[in-house]
Amino acid sequence: MELDHASTLLPKRVVVKFYRRDAGDSRDRLGTEFGSLRFLWQNNFRSIPSPLAIARDRQCAIYEYIDGDAATSGVLGPADIDAALDFLRRLKELRGAPGSDALPPASEACFSLSDIVASVDHRLERLRHNPGGDPGGDDVQRMRRWADDVLAPLASEVGEWCRGAARQAGIAFDEPMGVDARTLSPSDFGFHNAIRRPNGALAFVDFEYFGWDDPAKTIVDFLLHPGMRLDDRLKRRFATCAQAAFADVPALAARTRIVYPLFGLKWALILLNDFLPERFVPAARERRATQLGKAQALLGRLAGEYANNPFDVLT
Q1: How far apart (Å, rounded) are the C-alpha atoms in residues 119 and 148?
Q2: CA of 16: how far to CAs of 13, 55, 75, 179, 199, in Å?
Q3: What is the DSSP string of 64-112?
Q4: What pLDDT score was predicted for residue 82?
Q5: Centroid of chain to Cα 93
Q6: What is the pTM of this model?
Q7: Which DSSP string corresponds to 249-268?
């Protein structure tokens, strides 16, 4: 087992995390999380668990145990939004830090608008044409009818709107954003992956998908993530301050407005992952029904606001 930093003594309480390797998934979650936390720790981040040791042959690592409760188990307020924003600002400041150029793109990072559309289309087609379980099962049929009749038409409509909005904003749809405009991101960032310490401070966890990403994606994922329940006041505070923090990114406000519905569609599809062959559990009909209901609710909201979402700083 490889120990990290100078200490060879582990604290009394640690977390031993084992990483699964799904069929067809080549992502190195172990290496990404341990390496990113080591990079951040070396750059004086302390609102994260310290990486202590790694055993690649056993697909596990040891991290500092952070005492506290899940942040989402209590009431979230403006100070928590500010703590999240401060974390993102500090990540942005690491753009030129030693070793940052060796960090990989974040999981499923898309640096052009066309890449996001392609990612959504790929997920949608896979879900419609290759679900798990019995293709004639009631729950699978219900999902496929909704995907065919509602989700696919809205995805096409949103794609056309995004192309028009990009032309109007002078953003090249197929051109990747510049390297200097990208930021480091946990990629699954939010209070669903945060622990409130006994002193009230937040610590952020889960860096399996960390890497370089589009700041617009970081912003809209925070606003759309189904694992967080934030009121509109807190969402507006985050959207406004996050875009101010990345004010040096060209056309960020317009880009955020354009990608908002695209990532909304992607989150609806992620909610339906239990219908995919590798995740399908025949007995989990109730969970699949719940996830389908969540996806339908998200899409219903998205259909009514994608062209003028309530967190758009340009409105």
Answers
A1: 18
A2: 10, 10, 29, 35, 24
A3: E---SEEGGGS---HHHHHHHHHHHHHHHTTTTSTTGGGSPBPTT---S
A4: 98
A5: 20
A6: 0.91
A7: STTHHHHHHHHHHHHHHHHH
